[in-house]
Amino acid sequence: MSKRDSRIILETQENDFSYKRSKSNLNITFNRISFIFFIFFIIFIIYLVHLAHLGSRNSKMNETNDLKKVSNKLYRADIIDTNNKYLVKTINSIDIGISPSKIIDEKKLLLNLKYLFPEKDIQKIKKRIDKGKFFYFEKKISEENYEKLMQLGDNAIEPRDNLIRIYPQSNLFSHIIGQIDNDNNGISGLEKSLDEQLKNSQQPIKLTVDKDIQYLIREELIKFNKIFNTKGSASILMDVNNGEIISLVSLPDFNPNQRKKISDPNFINRATKGVYEFGSVFKTFTLAAALNEKIIEPQTEFLDLPKSLSCAGFPIREYDNKIPSNLTAEEILIRSGNIGSVRIGQKLGEDKFKSFLSTIGILKKITFEIEEVGKPIEFNWGKCPLATASFGHGITTTLIQLVKAYSIIANGGYNIDPTLIKNKNRNKREKILNDDVSKKILPILRKIVSTKNGTASLANVTGFDVGGKTGTAQKSINGVYTNKKINSFLSVFPTSKPKFVMAVMLDEPKISKDYIYHYRDGSNIKYKGTPFNTAGWTAVEVTGQILDKIGPILATKYSEVY
């Protein structure tokens, strides 16, 4: 081999070596770059995973916040009675829904649901599944049914928390509490009038009403609605000194747990919304107004009273021809004389009588915590209207206004406002009547109940020192007087130191042929059948029965009664 060939071989070997070395270096460089890229790729993936986690977390946080917002929107404060018993409560509830998109085995799910809930219409459920949209399988689910569904372990079954409004006392306070709509807004009663306060308060709202007393009074009214076959009835029990309402019942009532639009006029709140002529209960106002003006005294005599009068061609008669022609002012009220009341009203005069009725809150719409309050019909005063108004004919008002007025007359002449909110009226008393009005009227109201000439002896319950006045009024329908009646009794007790006023009103009571009356005069006399369709035989009897039932509670909680 020549030197030249040897040199070529060497050069070739050197070049090959250089190429391999270069290739090796290139590979090393590429591998390093790949490694670095891989590291960055891993870091990038981790970063993306972290971002996804944060997004999921934020989503869950947003979802939680949204749920909180919904919960806050649905929240309403509880309502309790004077003894801290729940009348209304907001509680947590669970609704069970089904998400069709998450169903893996529809046939299996339907079979399980049919087995667990045989009362459910599975075909309807299948149709809803076929629509592919989320739907609620059962709302406000019971604990038992919740456990059944959760044991299936199906992701398509979704429990969702909710807040619901419940009324533990059912119908008992329906006219007071009222209702809410599907959007959680109050639509009647305190739910409506206190809507904003209920939505924003964290503390229960305490009322003046007593659940136990409310229950007993309502039960008696239900019983006598059947006995006297009434269209409805109402009762109010109120503290005469501060206006706190202990019980307010109106029948028929409703169950606020079964949310319905109450459109039937029969569901009117007869205690506050109904506007009626109440008849002879107004005679107390006629005498009280004359005493307040010092025009007459209880022993002022009215002689030669006729049995009837004529005014504008219309007769005014005594309801009982046995009423004597010569009576004192006191006796006129005790015997509920129409003609005598007209004479007192004439002595008083239109302006003074009208002013007195306005002062005690009879003539204008009353301010009250619930919006279902009636407006008395405008009364056109004049000579004849004065005569009829003096014995309660032709003039209208509401039962709650009567309770307010009788309380003022009983408590020494202090103005008070009826209230359902505990401690609202503390230290808010204004003197509006003369001192001696109460002192002179109360003994007369007591004699109406305690003497044989009175019209309310059936309410003479031992230990209560009850006084009061009856009212029997013809019901006007479309401006025409009918034989249908409004019977009422306004009672005050104890008359020696008044603590309570109670009103009982019966709407269109009928005579009962089978009811047995038990006289409370100690004679043990019993009488079967209602002889007259008047307040003395209906509303007074109901009042007596109520006082028999609530007496022990009042004696325990309000020792001043005895």
CATH class of the largest domain: Alpha Beta
- First and last CA, distance: 147 Å
The count of domains is 3
Please identify the structural class as seen in this structure: alpha+beta
The low-confidence parts are 1-24, 56-71
Kindly report the average pLDDT value: 87
The value of Rg in angstroms is 40 Å
CATH-level-2 architecture of the largest domain: 3-Layer(aba) Sandwich
CATH superfamily of the largest domain: DD-peptidase/beta-lactamase superfamily
CATH topology name of the largest domain, in short, is Beta-lactamase
Give helix % range. Answer: 25-40%
Count of DSSP H/I helices: 16
The largest β sheet comes out as: 5 strands, mixed
Q: Can you tell me about this structure?
A:
The structure is a single chain. α9 packs across α12. The protein has helices at 3-74, 106-116, 122-130, 143-150, 174-177, 189-193, 195-200, 211-227, 283-292, 329-334, 338-348, 350-359, 383-389, 399-410, 436-450, 539-557; strands at residues 79-80, 86-98, 135-138, 157-166, 205-206, 232-239, 245-251, 276-277, 301-302, 308-311, 314-317, 327-328, 396-397, 414-415, 430-431, 467-477, 480-493, 500-507, 516-518, 526-528. The N and C termini lie far apart (147 Å). The protein has three domains: 1-74; 79-172, Penicillin-binding protein 2a (Domain 2) (Alpha-Beta Complex); 212-255 and 272-561, DD-peptidase/beta-lactamase superfamily (Beta-lactamase), CATH 3.40.710.10. β1 and β2 form a beta hairpin. The chain is 40% helix and 19% strand. Strands 1, 2, 3, 4 and 5 form a five-stranded mixed β-sheet that branches. A five-stranded antiparallel β-sheet has the order 7-6-18-17-16, sandwiched between helices.
